[in-house]
Specification:
Layout: H1 3-7, H2 13-40, H3 46-73, H4 85-88, H5 103-128, H6 133-158
């Protein structure tokens, strides 16, 4: 963003970037968790779950990329040290189950992570509504994808 674009942001850029960096850390943790789960899942119908998790991991990586781009446009940089991701995230890393065939537990973990992401993006959307149109559009786009992800995995639990 240029000077004028940053100037029309009607809230603290420092606070906004902090919120976006926390969401960025969340996305990296989600990406790794989903990618890891896709590698280890076993048991009945594991191929379908593996495919869903791999697709979801790609979506989370895309979100991290979009957030990094926005943070840079706002004049800052995203978290650089991977060791700082969990420390800077909104929620701790959710540990995968020891039983790789416990597909219901894997689904619950993913649904819980998506519910947390929905809360984060809803908060940022409320904060930026009418105050930063660019950030608002991005976070509502990501929010809509997180809502879809949560619903997809909750529907699996209902079967």
């Amino acid at each position: 963003m240029g000077k004028q674009a940053r100037a029309i942001v009607d809230l603290s850029l420092k606070e906004l970037v902090k919120d976006l960096n926390k969401a960025y850390a969340d996305e990296w943790l989600a990406y790794y968790l989903y990618w890891y789960l896709a590698q280890i899942v076993s048991g009945k119908a594991y191929e379908d779950i593996q495919e869903m998790l791999n697709k979801l991991a790609k979506d989370e990586l895309e979100h991290a990329t979009e957030l990094a781009d926005l943070i840079i446009k706002l004049g800052d940089v995203p978290t650089a040290n991977p060791m700082d991701l969990e420390k800077n995230a909104n929620a701790p890393y959710l540990m995968p189950p020891k039983n790789t065939a416990d597909i219901n537990r894997i689904i619950r973990i993913v649904a819980e992570a998506e519910a947390g992401a929905i809360e984060v993006y809803n908060k940022i959307a409320k904060k930026t509504l009418g105050k930063d149109h660019v950030t608002y559009q991005l976070v509502t786009h990501i929010l809509s994808e997180e809502v879809t992800h949560e619903e997809m995995f909750e529907n699996l639990l209902e079967r």
